[in-house]
Amino acid sequence: MVTLDKFECLFLVHLTSLAITSLCNTWMFIMKVLLGITGGIAAYKSADLIRLLVRSGHQVRCCLTDAGSRFITPLTLATLSGEPCFGANPEYHEWRPNPRVEHVDLARWADVVAVVPATANIIGKVANGIADDLLSTILLAATCRILWAPAMNRAMWSHPAFTKNLETLSGYGHSIVEPKSGILACGEDGTGKLADIDDIFDGIIATGTERSKIFQGKRVLVTAGPTHEDLDPVRTLTNRSTGHMGIEMAKAFRNVGANVHLVLGGELKSPWGIPTKRVRSAEDMLAACLELWPDMDGICATAAVADQRPEKYSTEKIKKMEEALNLPLLRTPDILSTLHQTKTHQWLLGFAAESENFVENASAKLVAKGLDAILVNDISSGKGFGDSPNTLIPITKCGSGNSIGPDSKELLASKAVNWFANFLDK
Ligand code: C5P
What we know:
By secondary structure, the protein is of the alpha/beta class. It has helices at about 5-25, 45-55, 75-80, 100-110, 120-125, 135-140, 155, 160-170, 195-210, 245-255, 280-290, 335-340, 360-370, 410-425, and strands at about 30-35, 60-65, 85-90, 95, 110-120, 145-150, 175, 180-185, 190-195, 220-225, 230, 235, 260-265, 275-280, 300, 310, 330, 345-355, 375-380, 390-395, 400, 405. The structure holds cytidine-5'-monophosphate (C5P).
């Protein structure tokens, strides 16, 4: 086994930090998204998707089918994307000059092609190799990743011919953002409503992001959110964590190709494409983690687990009293330390929310919990809660690295995952 002296360790941390800093300036991938819009009532929702993508810095070009143009206008799409809208115009034959190889040019331009909404027709055509308009020719010519967000009547969605076509596309490695259940445009109740736009956005980012050679295919357990330690049926002990940072960490690992499992406390929505186990207390969180841990390659523990719980839970609401209430508290189990005891090849990445002496306090936790690395969060003066921007300082047994951020939690998480990939790669 190779051991490093203090100087070598510091040099390594510095080099890793330099590599990360230079990567971080360029690595947040600005994606070129070719958005196909086909003929369904949900076509109008593609306008919101374009806004979301453009606001996040991505480049969007739209390709509207003939049927799609009955539901949304090319002018709307061109205005929102800031790019010409491509496709065949039923009245004037073309919205713009259509050079012979336009479908190949557009297919090569895109980092990801997303069809939102995708009708049974376009899915059937592409699954069977039919290319009879601009969008279907692009989809067959594309060598980049492809995502489908189907929307249709419930009987069409469950028709065996359609199911077979969707399975064919899935078998080609295409991503599918499945529709939701509810009252459909036709008035019937069932599955077929276009998925939520934020889930489709997430699906596009996850589909189009470059894979990490360290994390692709690896199984990563992420804990996120607060825990609740109940006193009685109405009262609880908890903290100000929302779970935003943990959810962004889960997404960031997912985006680079990891198979993420999330154990989540709090109220936030589970992110697209990530199996999630909802938990309430620290004990619940530990039980969920212990069940998953043997199959995992590592854990990113972002959860703000309560350190104490009431000694007794009262099944009846505790009555108001005049005198002070004496509330005995017990320590909750430490999840990371418990998992560390049964660790095999697995890595452990912790988080620490500190308001002072960041490096000293976090370094002590790194050792006490047997972690590979810990990311320290500055929570002084109320910073760091909710979806506000924040800064992280990475610490390993070699010392502390350059701080990451301040950035939005989304960007911070991507940079932190990138930092950790580089650290593990060394
Ligand atoms: O001890 P402290 O809560 O500050 O440590 C923070 C790190 O330990 C975080 O990664 C957190 O998710 C984890 N933790 C844990 N089990 C606990 C408390 C914290 O795994 N009971």
